[in-house]
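Treating backbone geometry as a discrete language has practical consequences that deserve illustration. The amino acid sequence and the backbone structure tokens for this protein are reproduced below.
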Amino acid sequence: MAKTENQIERDFYSIANNTLGNIIRGTVYRRGMRPDNAKTEDCIAKFLGGIDEQIQTGTVVLNIYVPFIPYQDGRRGEDLNRIGELEEQVKEAVRAIDDTDYEITTETTPQSYKMDEIEQTVIAVRLRFQRLNQE
């Protein structure tokens, strides 16, 4: 039976929590659950879209928030070392996923976006999934 948006997002929240929960220094959340004022290194799993056919396909994005760090000159900026570590660890974690009913691959290279207004960098990881629709 085809899964709904909420069911898929819940599955990917669980997958992210199991695979990234020990990698990130904060918490894994579902869309809309991370506090607006959070300053921690967190991950949000969000369903983007899918197609219901015999093989259900779609895209889920994982957004990983990395707080800015203080620089020697007193400014705050991106933690480029940590961002690089996380991008590599996320790619490895996705490759290691094998105990779900989804076939998961990275759709694009992880990309980071500097968000000065919240003093954090967001690493966006787009995951492509396929799931056999067993009706």
